[in-house]
Design brief:
Strand order of the largest sheet: 1-9-8-5-2-3-4
Shape: globular
Helix content: 40-55%
Length: 317
């Protein structure tokens, strides 16, 4: 049975405001007087019905050669490089998000699959770019706790959006991203629902994560998760990267800070036991990406050309 014209018009209007008008989901929701989750469902249906189509030829000789060099240099299973070397980091995130969406469609197409997911702007870009993947047996598991406010970059929101787009399910870690003390974190980790979610995350054969660079402009600071004193503490401790609730030194080891003991999240050894794909977008993330390469948790890398070239230079240096 064909869809009523009125419903089809609604899909087109939502898709137009979001993709062409560049309104956020919240802005579309307010503009049309419908819930944010209905906006999300309409966007997914518009993609599934072919009302929204995105295609890009991403493989070039230069980026393929660069990917091969990175894979050999860091011992990675797979590297994908988006052919964009723009100083516009939002454009870099969109490019990496498109490649990551293709990778997710590849691993999540068939059968019952559990995928651990991180958070952040590049993860949100992957969700925005995802099209044509429908698998009710997919389960997305958040690898860390959530924030107090809803945002498309948050752990809860990334999981929820991917589940809505694919027709799958989501498991959220019922815990804050950061507890007030180490003792509070230990208490949270003893809770049954927290233990069950982390057990599911450990059993996921795939994980897709992104990273921050611990700078004052990093999402952890601008979103209010870290206080100014905590951000200064990270810099004093020598932290150059964060991912999945953990903070890393340049050599890939964990920074000596209580923040690493206050985040209920999947452990480093657990990540090393699964197949982890890291999304890295923007030249400013190259140093942080190198730290994650040295940590031993990354199996696959998806990056933009600018970040990939700087990463290779840093690694060779």
């Amino acid at each position: 049975m064909s869809q009523p014209a009125r419903d089809s018009d609604d899909l087109v209007q939502v898709a137009w405001l979001y993709h062409v008008g560049r309104l956020s989901q919240d802005e579309v929701s307010r503009h049309l007087g419908i819930s944010r989750f209905k906006v999300l469902r309409f966007l997914a249906e518009a993609r599934d019905q072919g009302l929204v189509r995105v295609s890009i030829g991403h493989e070039t000789k230069g980026t393929l050669a660069l990917a091969d060099r990175l894979a050999a240099r860091f011992g990675l299973t797979e590297v994908r490089v988006a052919p964009i070397a723009s100083p516009d980091e939002a454009a870099a995130r969109r490019a990496v998000g498109m490649l990551a969406a293709g990778f997710l469609a590849r691993i999540g197409r068939d059968g019952a699959v559990r995928i651990g997911v991180g958070w952040g702007r590049t993860m949100a870009a992957m969700a925005q770019a995802l099209t044509g993947l429908r698998n009710p047996d997919l389960c997305f598991v958040s690898l860390m706790g959530s924030m107090a406010r809803m945002a498309e970059t948050g752990p809860f929101d990334v999981c929820a959006r991917l589940a809505a787009l694919t027709g799958g399910s989501a498991m959220f870690l019922p815990a804050p991203f950061l507890t007030d003390s180490e003792e509070d974190c230990r208490t949270v980790l003893r809770q049954r629902l927290v233990r069950e979610t982390l057990l599911a995350a450990r059993g996921a054969p795939w994980s897709i994560i992104s990273l921050g660079d611990c700078s004052p402009g990093a999402l952890l600071s601008t979103s209010g998760i870290l206080t100014a004193a905590e951000a200064a503490e990270l810099i004093a401790a020598g932290a150059v990267a964060d991912s999945t609730g953990k903070f890393f030194l340049a050599d890939g080891s964990l920074a000596d800070t209580d923040l690493n003991r206050r985040a209920p999240s999947i452990g480093i050894e657990d990540l090393r036991a699964t197949d982890v794909t890291l999304l890295a977008a923007g030249v400013s993330k190259a140093r942080a990406t190198l730290a994650l390469m040295r940590s031993g948790i990354v199996n696959r890398l998806i990056a933009d050309e600018g970040a990939a070239r700087v990463l290779l230079d840093l690694g060779d240096g």
